[in-house]
Amino acid sequence: MQRPITHLRHVALGVPDLPATLAFYRDVWGLTVVASDASVAYLAAAESPEPYVLRLREAEAKRVDVIAFGATDPLAVDALAAALDSRGVQIVVEPTELHTPGGGYGFRFFDNEGRTVEVSCDVATLTRDPDSRPAVPVALSHVVLNSASPEDAVAFWEANLGFTVSDVLTMPHMGRLMWFMRCNSWHHSIAFARCGHASLHHVSYEMRSIDEYMYATGRTKRSGAELVWGPGRHLAGGNTFSYFLDPVGNTAEFTTALAEVEDDTWESHEHSIADPNVADQWGTAQAMSAELAAKSFNTPDAGLFSAPPV
Fold first, then answer.
1. pTM summary value
2. What ranges do the domains of the chain cover?
3. Residue 95 CB-half CA count within 13 A
4. Would you give the DSSP letter of residue 52?
5. pLDDT digit string, tens, across residues 46-99
6. Is the dihedral of CA 87, 88, 89, 92 positive or negative?
7. Cis bond upstream, residue 231 (ω within 30)
């Protein structure tokens, strides 16, 4: 299947306390600062070819600045921008040369709920020297977004960006609660969770192994960061999870072993989280509850239908 999107590149967040948030992701989480100034910092993962996987910007209120994805070449970028424009999708930045680390060629648009999405190609890839620090993130895995109308969000990303639903989580008397969506062979690069408002649910970072995943979980817990949920292992996607709150209340996840699926043969499943094995196959994490789920509802996204300045 030919898709307009190849992969997830990075997530950019606006945060109200840049110094504390930057210190957390650099010194505790294990990302590396590759560029920064007084108001913006770009952080890379140890083995990712992407110039950076997380951008932090000083902002008055928490917001998702940009969710960035890759495309194959300038023709694909131009074709997608033209297709979205013809369907009435608001283009924020027309296809142009990019001036962020790694450069490239891309454009930005608002999705149906007002999040700024970037699609780019020709971004310089990097081969990094081995990181001597133990148990640091090696890549960006996925991002999960809260949505007041997840069915509409899923339909938008399917129809306009070629994403496919891999699996759905359900709950008796509540119906469908979360949709996992893929743009390549990874089980999901993005997911949408039902919530009363649009906001960031969590950003997930890939570790080299389960051993390093556990080491990083312990290190972050010892730092004093709040462990929201985990360690455990999901059924949908098969990946491990440890969710922490960062200094401004965004949720970040350590994960590893996310499933790869055969695009042409994989069939989407519905899994009820009333079954404890769906939430956590290992049985090591806290039981899922409404109070626990609310930890990652976050505050409403302050950046909807408002393009970031960078």
1. 0.96
2. 7-121, 139-294
3. 19
4. -
5. 999 999 999 999 999 999 999 999 999 999 999 999 999 999 999 999 999 999
6. positive
7. yes
